[in-house]
Amino acid sequence: MNHRPDFKTTSHSSGIQCESNADINFQQALANAKQFSPIRYAATPKLRLSELSLISSFDYQNLLFTHSGGTALSKAGQVLKLDSNTILVPSYHCPAAIEPFIWLGFKCIFYRVNADLSPDKNHVHQLINQHDISHCLTINYFGVICHLPLIADILSSTNIIIIHDCAHALFDLLSYTKVHNEADATICSINKILPSIDGGIVTFKSSVPRPLQPVGFVEESKAILYLLGITSIINKLRFAFKKRTEPINGALDNTKATSLCYFNSSKAEQQCFSHTIAILRRSNLNKIAQRRRENYRYLCSALKNSGLGTLLKPQLDQHNVPYVLPFLLHDKSHFSKVRQTGIQCLRWEEIAQTDCNVSQDYRSRLLQLPCHHQLSKQELDAMIKQLKDIL
Ligand SMILES: Cc1ncc(COP(=O)(O)O)c(C=O)c1O
Fold first, then answer.
1. How many Cβ atoms from other residues are within 10 Å of residue 154's Cβ?
2. Dist. CA 231–CA 370, nearest whole Å
3. Residues lining ligand 1, judged by CB closer than 6 Å?
4. Which one of 176, 213, 302, 386 has the fewest beta carbons within 10 angstroms of its own beta carbon?
5. d(C-alpha 360, C-alpha 341), whole Å
6. What's this model's pTM, rounded to 2 decimal places?
7. How do beta strands 200-204 and 366-370 pair?
8. What is the pLDDT of residues 256-270, one digit of tens each?
9. Whose CA is nearest to atom 7 of ligand 1?
10. What are the structural domains of the chain?
11. Whose CA is nearest to atom 9 of ligand 1?
């Protein structure tokens, strides 16, 4: 994958062993993160205590905090589960968005996407006519590409339950930007945007589940030490801590999930760390949103005529707060050159094999470039120069 390629090297080697999804085959990673140069421009921000305020900046009623975006999806599926569950999922995805439903025993059917990552309307209609669809997953890609209103419109004459994956779009979930409420459940991932170790959120249109189990004091303390970079202590603790948080194969208690690479069912009923919630509450979300938007725009204006590739979303909509900048390479072989510059660009390599040509093409060509709020103008300029120098 994708969001943490430098921490996780596990790749899918076989189809998922779940009866109704036996034909799903997540593909092998294309590149090995261990062979990349050290990261100079990270995809996500680091914890800086000076960026946290003493005053909480928002009220978090009706939000259910989960261990991760993945377990937020599993909670959404669990709460909205029916007697028979078949979910439409986008062909362009990362396995972490699909595995929670496989684990829950949903049958997953992939709908094709267009070049702008919108759902292929005809294909969605066709699938609805062919199958008894109960749910539909939509993904907000990178915090900037969202087709929830279109999906809601396509499904408007059905009773299909919509689950909206805003793993990349924390701000959309917080309704901070006051957007769409067509979904029955919306989830996000906290540590894609904020400097936390873990964290996910799920909200429901018409119910508020009880809070999940908090993390114990010892684990919480270890995590805080880890996050603060207290290395002398961490060096002793790292092994024990990593052992617990690093999933996955073999550590699962559910036999259906034995070949899931990203979903950790042992965390399904667990809340994120309390300090993750504190980071969320004490972050200056206004400023973070503004800086991310500025950085995205700055990179867009520098890359708009790049010979290396094209911008998938050159203009931000009013409410978009980017997680990363989607950049479509002209030549897929340039991916490794980009990584050698130290830019932690991500790519969804392990998508399931489907007949969606766009997704299969984007698997090797669509990069996610960092644009987070801590990147300075000097760093952006250095990144831009590195990209220019590739050609
Ligand atoms: C679209 C999408 N959904 C869900 C997830 C899962 O989020 P998390 O890593 O917080 O479990 C990811 C993460 O890779 C993702 O990219």
1. 19
2. 26
3. 2-3, 68-70, 94, 96-97, 139, 165, 167, 189, 200
4. 213
5. 25
6. 0.89
7. unpaired
8. 334 788 999 999 999
9. 69
10. 56-281 (3.40.640.10)
11. 69
